[in-house]
Amino acid sequence: MSTGLLAQYIAIGVIVLISTLVTFRKLAPQLTNRWLAATALHFDQQGHPAWQRALGRYLQPKQATGNCSDGCSTCGACGPKPPAGAHAEAQPLEFRPRAK
């Protein structure tokens, strides 16, 4: 196997791994937050080197503050924002029979 082909396989493997992590993060955010918290707790223990403790603090997932500006959607009060220019009041649909 040539060096160029090996580098190509490594690059493709890294891209697939990153894509998988991003997909997991989007589809299962609570699961990935638990994984990150467990990994961060493992690294940020007394007696570990300083670089491991710094990595553990970096990997610690951000906690929701509970205010409406952080977009955590834990309370469900924020809801989706209406598109720009949309009317505040919903207008009912009117179905009319076809003219003959």
Structure notes:
The protein is mainly α. It has a domain at 3-59. The chain has three helices and no strands. It has helices spanning 3-27, 29-43, 50-59. Helix 1 (3-27) packs across helix 2 (29-43) and helix 2 (29-43) packs antiparallel against helix 3. The longest helix has 25 residues, at 3-27. The protein is flat and about 80 Å long. The N and C termini lie far apart (75 Å). 0% of the residues are buried.
Class by SSE composition = mainly alpha
* Uncertain residue segments: none
Strand content: under 5%
Give the averaged pLDDT, no decimals: 82
Tally the beta strands.
0
List the helices and strands in order: HHH
Please give the structural blueprint.
Blueprint: H1 3-27, H2 29-43, H3 50-59
Short note summarizing the structure:
By secondary structure, the chain is an all-alpha fold.
Q: Which terms would index this structure?
A:
3 helices; 50% helix; 100 residues; mainly alpha; flat; 0% strand
